[in-house]
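User: Replication factor A protein-like protein, Hapsidospora chrysogenum:
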Amino acid sequence: MAEQLSTPRITAPYLDNFVGRHVLLMGKVTQLRGDEATIDSDGAVTVSLNRDAHLANGNVAQVIGKVNPDLSIKVLSCKDLGPNVARSDSRSEANPPHDALALIDTPSSLDLGLYASVVEVTHQHKSIFVSES
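Assistant: Predicted structure for Replication factor A protein-like protein:
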């Protein structure tokens, strides 16, 4: 397998398109069970945590990891972004915020609906956002 050039942002519905690849996923931690967590990112995603992972139930997490054949994610790196998150359906807005990516990466203004919209746009325009070898 050739070296992967990018780590695409995804949500649960896109998992099956990225088996064996590294991805970035954001969502709300809904359950912690030992070395596994369930994250809601437009659907439930099971993630296998590494020993450096420190997540809190109810907080939003950003996970970078590899998608397994069972559609779980083996975590390479994760970050707890805290509990302050909004869930809006920004996909229905005619004029989304001008700098959507900046809003996603600012913990004080997290919006998972906006994140899902950015993921959708990313996958509609793969030639711009996803580099494949």
